[in-house]
Amino acid sequence: MARAQPTLDLSPKVSDEVRKTTCYMCACRCGLNVHMKDGKVAYIEGNRDHPVNKGVLCAKGSAGIMQHNAPSRLRAPLKRVGPRGSGEFEEITWDEALSIATDWLGPLREKQPEKLAFFTGRDQSQSFTSYWAQNFGTPNYAAHGGFCSVNMATAGIYTMGGAFWEFGQPDWDHTKLFMIFGVAEDHDSNPIKIGIGKLKSRGGRVIAVNPIRTGYNAVADDWVGITPGTDGLFILSMIHVLLKSGKIDLDYLARFTNAPVLVNANTDSGDHGMLMRDQAGKELVIDRRTGKPAPFDRKGVQPDLSAQWRHGGYTHKTVMNLMVEKYLDPQYAPEAVAEQCGIPAERIRAIASELAKTAFDQSFEIAQPWTDFRGERHETMRGRPVSFHAMRGISAHANGFQTCRALHLLQILLGTVEVPGGFRFKPPYPKPATAHPKPHSGVTPNAPLDGPHLGFVQGPEDLALKPDGTAVRIDKAFSWENPLSAHGLMHMVISNAHAGDPYKIDTLMMYMANMSWNSSMNTSGVIEMLTDTDVTGDYIIPRIIYSDAYSSEMVAYADLVLPDTTYLERFDCISLLDRPISEADAAADAIRWPVVEPDRDVRGFQSVLCELGARLNLPGFVNADGSAKYSDYADYMVNHERKPGIGPLAGYRLGPNGLTSGRGGVNDGQIDNYIANGGFFVEHVPDDAQYYKPWNTSYQKWAVDMGFYDSPQPYLFSLYAEPLRKFQRAAEGVGPHQPPEHLRARLKQVMDPLPIWYPADDRGQDGYPITALTQRPMAMYHSWGSQNAWLRQLHGVNPLYVPTKLMQQHGLADGDWARVTSPHGEITVPVMEMAALNENTVWTWNAIGKRKGAWALDDDAPEATKGFLLNHLIHELLPPKGDGLRWANSDPITGQAAWFDLRVQIEKVDAPQQSQPQFAPLKSPVPQAPETLAWKIGK
Length: 939
What we know:
This protein is of the alpha/beta class. It has five domains: 167 residues, N-terminal domain of TfIIb (Single Sheet), CATH 2.20.25.90; 193 residues, Rossmann fold (3-Layer(aba) Sandwich); 187 residues, Dimethylsulfoxide Reductase, domain 2 (3-Layer(aba) Sandwich), CATH 3.40.228; 77 residues, no CATH class; 116 residues, Barwin-like endoglucanases, CATH 2.40.40.20. Helices cover 24% and strands 17% of the residues. Strands 5-4-25-24-23-6-7 form a seven-stranded mixed sheet, covered by helices on one side. A six-stranded mixed sheet has the order 32-34-33-36-31-35. α8 packs across α12.
């Protein structure tokens, strides 16, 4: 007889209700279905209707429930009562916390607003936080980009009006060859996974250039294990091959780039090396029909790429002529660069050949008419099915800006930007650098700053300098040291403030920036700076206000802690004014909203800023009668207008005939409209505007209607970047704005208007032959992921991965320990062999190592005993050069932190009990997590 079987409910009730919002576990900002049971979060899945992830959800997103319930969540505002770093706090009320902040900040605003330095980490509300800082009046504001990927963003915008990641994406439906440079798994992960799946299903190929073969690189058809920091040389060598073989898109270059623009050859002119223009300021080309100069955008003009113009006793050449002269130089031949790049010459030629064959031999057309900015109608759109993507791996070097520019030059020479099958911009991009604000630094006590903090410098006249030539900003952004630092230099704030270079500050206010641990180079040094006192016993950085949702390492060094919510308890605005979630064929933005209410005395930091702004009587945050203008961040999201008709949210605005998109009046029910639509808004690009966006009259009109700009803004891609030439000319002694003598040679070298490559070896690293890198795993994002109970099971420890050659040289086996030494410090860590790794490179996962006492983890947690950071080996300054100056460990053009230029030695050592260095455990303001973390939602 059959045994009696239990009755099982094979379809248990998952939830009582589904609430749709936006993920915050990384910067993808995917759509979520949050299943609720008995008023609590029971389960999280992807939203199939969402434009970003289309229902796909990664491990991070699914584990958001553990982030929301993390034991490390802060419980209430905190006031320090012991020495800084002791972790001794008392809980206070919000009224007391905001009163303390007001008492500290009010006098600064009245007399010296620049004494407040306000810097935010990887938050997603930078248009709002910068607006608050601008109204406070301090010039010292920036977000995390200066130590993340400002080289990528800046190089892209100066070259072509947009960059990778949030600015654009491959044309996944048509591309046949996808080439990636320096891409880890943490950025844009779900869209890239979906896209690679589409590509491979059609038989397309992936080429991955990265010293480390993990993630996307592991599924690539070809992996190029390049020597770190030589990507730019490799790219310029491929450009050499393409030019020499004539495999470039001449028609594209002539129509849409400044390749045919004339460059002034008059060496006696103050405009030598500048682009030639007519009286209206339009760039001049030689028209093939007449053989005479003409403005680039004149109707019917046919620019001549190879023209020369004899005028005024000088022969003026086109940008194209200058590029051919530069890149056909034998120094860029594959045989000349192969050893340095670690790539055989024949392989460089083969990859260049494959790019060309795919772009040109597999070219195709889409039967879609469109009209360009010269008024010429085109019956089809020509496709070049090659696309590229790159991220931090090529960006975080001292030559990263020019390397990124070189990659964009490669794309453009192949004609693969804004065409079918190539790289496509995401609205509101493309926008040329000239369409963005310039940085402002005019400080007036008790008044707002004279404009936005960050922007795109067009020449030396735009630098943020005092009359004596010293930097206005505490991070020295937009100074001669870092002229094009569009995202600021967050990694230099604490060091500069401690050194009083260029001046001392009073209050450091930070949000989501774990600067005492994984978000800072020179970790031990930064800890000392945060706790250092002067001869009177006062802290050198007098006051620190910090906001975080969790008990991170940075909390212990704050004087006042403003506890943030988790992302499921807050209002947020993923805005077209900031970091939108657009796709190439549609503009999109999104919100977060409190799907649950906090069970602790915490508040969303943006809402706290609204109240603090009102208490400080900041313009923009108070009404004419002095009352608070916004009750909270949700109120700001709906009612704030950056200019008439343009607000933080582009969807569901009020027009003359009801709801409208882009431009429109305030709609009191806007957030409800978003919630009803799944937490997002989408407006599709018209069919005839899908491609050629910078030059397509239909797209330009649509962009104006949406409020991206006020009038059509067609422009040429800047293969020759004139702002760089302006700095070069200043270094040559031309013009009223002159750099300090010690920077002239550097500016002449690095500010080349055509992409170049230079080694980043002048760093006191002789005798340190191995490059050491960090990389973020797909299952983690910055430091908050590695406290997550589910995600810790994937990455609880992080060995140092060592290539086979070095393992054998040093007698190492898996599980052994090695001492890793740099010019700055040393660590002792466990090692593991990895064959798919550049033979002179070691690496580890970033931000896995934790300090004891932080994040509510047990002192014996693997993250605290075997986990580690490479940050201890990196310094924010280069070794002294004997000139008495402080030289930042940064790209000399943008100031991006040069994390990936780290060089080390390794040696086998006896296994210690724990990884080294170890720091004294922090005293946590929250209880240690229970050994078993479990709960049940519902019956």
